[in-house]
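Reopening this ticket.

The earlier resolution said the output was attached, but the attachment link was broken on my side. Pasting everything inline this time so it's all in one place.
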Amino acid sequence: MRILCSSTLLAEFFVIGFAGLVAMKEPDLSATVVWTVSGVAMLLSVLLCGMVTRPGGVQLGWALQIALIISGFFVPVMFFLGACFAGLWWASVHFGRKVDEAKARWAAQAEQA
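Inline output:
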């Protein structure tokens, strides 16, 4: 699960950065606000890569996905991209857990043999 979720979070890091560049064109938003919010979200996405397998890591990942969708109010394309990444996050968690379970079964079978 860690590899799939980390890959999704690293891709989000770049998308958040590019969304920050797009948000700079918005006349109602100051550069300080845009880069503070974008920077915190980018930092969170990188830190979550190491926290995914710890308690609360997946829930924080979901919070980041919701924040990305909400950012669509400032950068409209983020409604679509946030929804896409939320789907990727779900798939990473769901299928990552299945892979982890399969690895555990294979390890148990190899240990018995």
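Reporter confirms the inline version is readable. The longest helix spans residues 77-112. DSSP finds four helices and no strands in the chain.
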